[in-house]
Amino acid sequence: GENVEQHPSTLSVQEGDSAVIKCTYSDSASNYFPWYKQELGKRPQLIIDIRSNVGEKKDQRIAVTLNKTAKHFSLHITETQPEDSAVYFCAAIPSGGNTGKLIFGQGTTLQVKP
Amino acid sequence: ETGVTQSPTHLIKTRGQQVTLRCSSQSGHNTVSWYQQALGQGPQFIFQYYREEENGRGNFPPRFSGLQFPNYSSELNVNALELDDSALYLCASSSVQGSGANVLTFGAGSRLTVL
After folding, report:
1. How many CB pairs under 8 A join A and B?
2. Is the CB of residue B30 less than 8 Å from the CB of residue B50?
3. Ramachandran sector of residue A96 (left: φ over 0; alpha: ψ -120 to 50; beta: rest)
């Protein structure tokens, strides 16, 4: 079945450093890849997404890259700040067209040390 | 424009009982999906509702069922509760078409504890 693998499971960086989280997916027909940030006890919030017709998307300090051939996509956070500390989830929509079905990775706990 | 709201926020049940969780979708969204998030895990897709019908289901047994109403709000029902059903249940709404297709907006969730 569809699967999304996410690494690392935990990531600790110093404030101002960059953080990179990587995901691989199994369904080559997947065409939408969102990233969600979930703070403790709160709802997952979409921070950036990318569709399969582009290779890179950037929004201020956050960027996502997609390599369709390798079935791999990554989240890049530059100039990290303590408020970036949270759990980050990558996800993919599998083929089949159900718009509300996301396959999530296992999550990465990011800690930004002041 | 209002976001996705869920109720109740927390509840405690015992094994064998039944529970109903409720979700109001974001304005302009016509599709509702439900997810189960166990502690320390990513959300797992339960099912999706569109036009008041189930439209896609994850690997969950039939004792997980749902409804969608004409105003696009939704319910998740779980019968014969088991200890492993303890989790955060997230509702997400989305739009079927347009530039925002597939973009899910999540509610804050209902935290279910089964004793």
Report:
1. 67
2. yes
3. left
The backbone torsions φ and ψ at residue B89, rounded to the nearest 5 degrees and listed phi first, read -105, 120
Q: How many other C-beta atoms can be found within 10 angstroms of the C-beta atom of residue B46?
A: 23
Residue A60 DSSP class: T
Q: Bridge partners of A5? A: A24
Compute how many other C-beta atoms are within 10 angstroms of the C-beta atom of residue B48: 25
Rg (chain B; Cα; Å): 13
Cis peptide before B8 (omega within 30 of 0): yes
Residue of A nearest to B4 (CA): A43
- The predicted-structure confidence for A18-77, as pLDDT tens digits, reads as follows 999 999 999 888 889 999 999 998 999 999 999 888 899 999 999 999 999 999 999 999
For A82, the enclosing helix (H) or strand (E) is: none
Per-residue tokens: B12: 């405690």
3-state SS, residue A84: helix
A105 part of contact set with chain B, CB < 8 Å: yes
Q: Which residues pair with A58 in a beta bridge?
A: A63
Which sign, positive or negative, has the C-alpha torsion A54, B103, A34, A104? negative
**Binary contact (B45, A101; C-beta < 8 A):** yes
Strands A10-14 and A108-113, how do they pair? parallel
